[in-house]
Amino acid sequence: MKVLVLNGPNLGRLGLREPEVYGSTTHAQLADRCRVTGVELGLDVEVRQTDHEGEMIGWLHEAADAGHPVVLNGAAWTHYSIAIRDAVAQLTAPLVEVHISNVHKREDFRHHSYISALAAGVIVGLGIDGYFLALRWIADNAIRSA
Ligand code: DQA
């Protein structure tokens, strides 16, 4: 089963960006580890990152049409993009929302997510392990015979 791991703005700078908040793993390393985890779990994991909202919306439409489960870190869009929320609402397979940092310990504007009410579940604050836990949950719960 194919699973899309979709990362939003500024996550391409993981490893460089505020390492005290987001850790030292780069996006390329995160993508490799997601793919390896996918192989272990029998999933075909594709990891993408964009700083462009329209591109992310296109990927969500693709997932909706193909029935792919999604692991989404919408980054800042999480907190304000109704367009991303409306694209997520069209998904036909489960979505797990992931945030590397514990957004609830941070600024008030990070406490609200437009995505969470549509997600199967939300993993926050466990660093990049959140992605691997999300993939494990999808492998155990979201297998569909397509
Ligand atoms: C983030 C948290 C967001 O508030 C922030 O805008 C990000 C990353 C996280 O993974 O912790 O870019 O989604």
UniProtKB/TrEMBL annotation:
TM segment ranges: 114-139
Pathway(s) this gene product operates in, as recorded in its UniProt entry: Metabolic intermediate biosynthesis; chorismate biosynthesis; chorismate from D-erythrose 4-phosphate and phosphoenolpyruvate: step 3/7
Top EC group: lyase
InterPro entries the record matches: DHquinase_II, DHquinase_II_CS, DHquinase_II_sf
Binding-site positions, substrate: 73, 79, 86, 100-101, 110
CDD domains referenced in this protein's UniProt entry, alphabetically: DHQase_II
Catalytic activities: 3-dehydroquinate = 3-dehydroshikimate + H2O
Organism: Actinokineospora diospyrosa
Keywords from the named record: Amino-acid biosynthesis, Aromatic amino acid biosynthesis, Lyase, Membrane, Transmembrane, Transmembrane helix
Name assigned to this protein: 3-dehydroquinate dehydratase
PROSITE patterns: DEHYDROQUINASE_II (PS01029)
Pfam families, sorted: DHquinase_II
Record EC number: 4.2.1.10
Domain of life where this protein originates: Bacteria
Subunit structure: Homododecamer.
Role according to the record: Catalyzes a trans-dehydration via an enolate intermediate.
Family: Belongs to the type-II 3-dehydroquinase family.
Active site: 22 (proton acceptor), 99 (proton donor)
Annotated site (Transition state stabilizer): 17
